[in-house]
Design goal:
The protein contains 12 helices and no strands. It is globular. The protein is mainly α.
Length: about 300
């Protein structure tokens, strides 16, 4: 009886593990690291001027900006106390809010009705009308200053909040009308037809159906109108004569004279000026991005 040894055969090669297939739009680790690094650097670049302004506002001397390293040992809030207690800051703030909110309300109302009319109604010359609005944005402030001053003088609106609001609306309305027209184009026309079936007038359809759907676009138009009026200097300096009616942007110039510049007080005032704008941005930020992108998707 013979025994035979069975030689074990080599195991068959196992199939290699399938490689992970990267999905479309999915980036690799290096790409994600690069994008995060670029965004971090961009964020720091954007925040640096704000942080530097706040830092300079804590220096007690007007020439501390020349030697910023010395501010660390003598930081103080005296600049803010001086601006709030010994200047017309609150009068400037009141004027800025009156003018900015007035421009926002009137400008958004006019721009929304204009954009809706051009988007939905086909009256003679509606295309040319929008191009005329666009052409008004081509003229620089220096060209518009003299005729606007003459018009406001004839209407006795020099040194009045209403006159300045109307001037700012002439700047904000053309852009906001184009913005709202593009946003209204994205809203289905069937909604207007449904409103008519329910017996609504064109204005009722606009007010009760279209406007509630247009909050993102209205938020962008309101933010642009507010910023336009809040930070403008040239028109406010020319048309407002009473220093108690100066806006904050004009009041900021009072810290600079022919022979002197109180840069520490300017920095503190600039920080205080940024607070209302930041608060307004916080209120509209939810709809801001959606409104900026939606109007560009159609005609």
């Amino acid at each position: 009886m013979s025994t035979t040894s069975v030689t074990p055969t080599a195991p068959a090669d196992r199939p290699a593990a399938p490689r992970k297939v990267r999905r479309r739009g999915e980036s690799g680790p290096l790409a994600r690291l690069t994008s995060h690094g670029v965004l971090t650097v961009a964020g720091l670049v954007a925040l640096f001027p704000v942080a530097w302004l706040v830092f300079l506002s804590l220096g007690p001397d007007k020439d501390d900006y020349l030697h910023p390293g010395g501010i660390w040992g003598k930081m103080t809030l005296d600049n803010y106390a001086f601006v709030l207690q010994h200047t017309n800051f609150f009068d400037w703030l009141k004027s800025s809010l009156i003018v900015s909110l007035g421009t926002t309300v009137i400008g958004v109302l006019v721009a929304a009705t204009t954009g809706y009319a051009v988007s939905r109604m086909r009256f003679p010359g509606y295309r040319k009308f929008m191009w005329v609005l666009l052409v008004t944005q081509m003229f620089p402030v220096a060209v518009l200053m003299v005729p606007m001053y003459q018009i406001l003088s004839d209407l006795r609106l020099i040194d009045s909040y209403l006159g300045l609001v109307l001037v700012y609306c002439s700047t904000a309305v053309p852009y906001c009308a184009w913005l709202m027209k593009g946003y209204f184009d994205t809203i289905p026309f069937e909604i207007d037809e449904a409103g008519r079936v329910d017996g609504l007038t064109p204005f009722g359809t606009f007010a009760r159906l279209i406007l509630p759907l247009s909050k993102p676009g209205l938020a962008v138009a309101a933010f642009y109108s507010f910023i336009t009026a809040f930070g403008e200097v040239a028109f406010a300096t020319t048309f407002m004569l009473d220093d108690e009616k100066y806006t904050l942007a004009v009041g900021l110039q009072s810290f600079v004279s022919e022979h002197d510049a109180q840069r520490n007080l300017m920095a503190a005032t600039a920080v205080l000026i940024a607070i209302p704008v930041s608060a307004f941005f916080y209120l509209v930020q939810k709809n801001l991005v959606a409104g900026l992108t939606a109007g560009g998707t159609k005609g």
